[in-house]
Design a protein that fits this description.
- Belongs to the tRNA nucleotidyltransferase/poly(A) polymerase family.
- Residues 249-371 form the HD domain.
- Keywords: Magnesium, Metal-binding, Nucleotide-binding, Nucleotidyltransferase, RNA-binding, Transferase, tRNA processing.
- It is globular and about 85 Å long.
- With 452 residues, the protein is α+β, with helices and mostly antiparallel strands.
- The protein has helices spanning 9-20, 30-36, 52-58, 108-113, 137-143, 152-158, 161-173, 179-188, 197-208, 213-223, 225-229, 231-234, 249-262, 267-275, 280-283, 297-311, 316-327, 339-349, 354-368, 375-389, 403-408, 415-430, 437-451, and strands at residues 25-28, 45-48, 63-67, 72-77, 80-86, 88-90, 102-104, 122-125, 131-133, 145-146, 176-177, 285-286, 292-293.
- The chain contains 23 helices and 13 strands.
- The structure holds adenosine-5'-triphosphate and magnesium ion.
Length: 452
């Protein structure tokens, strides 16, 4: 029986315009795969025999030549954008990442052949939805297998990123890798160095957001990709922790990531979960009683994560958050903390980072002991939220006086002004009742004398 993919009215109407001009339009790639699996996918890709300029001519003023060199045109149609790529086949790949040339072809068969995995090579006709499966993708979907199309070694030599994509789809769909595909990746994993950091990061982050990221990372480790992409994490493999932990550092990191996944925590919390103990091998000390300790692994870990995110060319925002979470993950809250101590903590971490930091600690704690009590962490979060909700002064800009006020009192502009502001903030963090212009002016003059 022929399987059909649902084609909505807009897509059918889009296809009709191509057909009237004597062309074909197919839905391809992830959208068809995910439809067959009953998964959501809003990323729709189309392929056609029409040449890019022919597509542009069909939709005058409604096209953006997004990747015209590769044959991709974005068509605006009924308020939506559709990426349409001309059937193509690729020439040889002498650099292991880009085809030397792209040839537009008139057959769907050659277009499907150049795709990476059997489960990514379906095409659905936009008139009747009938799915074309020339590479036995249905069988692999049923068996939950990621399998390269054709000779896996050849496919990975053409484009080394495909090895990482294989791990990404294994995670995303919770599939295994076909044996020959895994063997080829193991043989060629070193070629991943040919791939740009941006493309690696994109696949790695998608892997972390998948259904089974531990499976994806274990595949990366076994094939050797992990040693290239995250050597710092690979160094944690087999580093035993004697004491509270039941796993070595590497496995504890993966389990922490798995806990973050179970809670559906966001990407950067997952990145931090995976890397939170990455400095442990460098901070390892064996104590006289035989237990291990890792003093300073949080601070050094924060620096290492900063460097890793820089290497992956992550945005500043993502890099700073991941690094901060790792640096601050060892806080030791007890209900004896004073309000001032709680406010100082919020000030150091930043109000907006409290939630992800608590999430990281929950994942970390549950990785050590899935049935551990989390009351302390909840109570801490509640207390911090309470302080933030009351809008207590937490930074210099929340003070009832500013630099100009202090200069009007005679305190000179320059480093002294900053020191005095910090000193009065310290006092206000302990006692918010001090935050009035009169009290703070007096206090500022006293602090100035003390500090001069
Ligand atoms: P997602 O739902 O995560 O977007 P996807 O399968 O659509 O998954 P994309 O990266 O968007 O993945 O790629 C779209 C399609 O293009 C793939 O399904 C595959 O057919 C093809 N493709 C993408 N990258 C490659 C590659 N490096 N080599 C060969 N084919 C590729
Ligand atoms: Mg896609």
């Amino acid at each position: 029986m022929k399987r059909k993919c649902h084609i909505d009215d807009n897509v059918r109407a889009l296809g009709e315009i191509f057909r009237q001009a004597g062309h074909e339009l197919y839905l391809v790639g992830g959208a068809v795969r995910d439809w067959l699996l009953g998964l959501e996918n809003d990323d729709w890709d189309f392929t056609t025999d029409a040449l890019p300029e022919e597509v542009m001519a069909l939709f005058p003023r409604r096209c953006i030549p997004t990747g015209i060199g590769h044959g991709t045109v974005t068509v605006r149609f009924r308020g939506r954008s559709y990426e349409v790529t001309t059937f193509r086949s690729e020439g040889s790949y002498s650099d292991g990442r880009h085809p030397d040339s792209v040839t537009f072809v008139r057959s769907l068969e050659s277009d499907l052949e150049r795709r990476d995995f059997t489960i990514n090579a379906f095409a659905a006709n936009t008139s009747d939805g009938i799915i074309i499966d020339l590479h036995n993708g249905m069988r692999d979907l049923k068996d939950h297998v990621v399998r390269a199309i054709g000779d896996p070694e050849e496919r990975f030599r053409e484009d080394a990123l495909r090895m990482l994509r294989a791990c990404r789809f294994a995670s995303r769909l919770d599939f295994t890798l076909d044996e020959a595909t895994e063997a080829a990746a193991t043989k060629l994993s070193g070629n991943i160095r040919l791939i740009s950091a941006e493309r690696i990061r994109e696949e790695l982050f998608k892997l972390l957001m998948g259904r089974n990221p531990v499976r994806g990372l274990e595949l990366m480790r076994r094939t050797g990709l992990l040693a290239h992409v995250l050597p710092e994490l690979m160094d944690c493999y087999g580093v035993e922790q004697v004491g509270r932990h039941h796993e070595d550092v590497y496995h504890h990191c993966l389990t922490t990531l798995e806990m973050a996944r179970r809670h559906s925590y966001p990407l950067i919390v997952r990145v931090a979960a995976l890397l939170h103990d990455v400095a442990k091998p460098r901070c390892l000390k064996v104590e006289t009683d035989g237990t291990t300790s890792f003093h300073g692994h949080d601070r050094l870990g924060g620096e290492m994560v900063d460097a890793i995110m820089r290497r992956l060319k992550s945005s500043n925002e993502e890099r700073e958050l991941a690094s901060l979470l790792v640096r601050e993950h060892m806080f030791n809250y007890t209900d004896e903390w004073s309000d001032g101590a709680v406010r100082r903590f919020i000030r150091r971490v930043g109000a907006q980072n409290i939630e992800p930091l608590i999430q990281l600690r929950i994942a970390d704690a549950q990785a050590m002991d899935p049935s551990c009590r989390l009351d302390g962490l909840w109570a801490f979060e509640e207390r911090m939220k309470g302080e933030i909700g009351r809008k207590v002064p937490l930074s210099v800009k929340d003070l009832a006086v500013d630099g100009n006020d202090l200069m009007a009192l005679g305190i000179p502009r320059g480093p002294m002004l900053g020191k005095v502001l910090s000193a009065i903030l310290e006092a206000v963090l302990d006692d918010e009742g001090l935050n009035s212009p009169e009290v703070l002016s007096d206090l500022a003059l006293r602090k100035w004398k003390e500090l001069s």
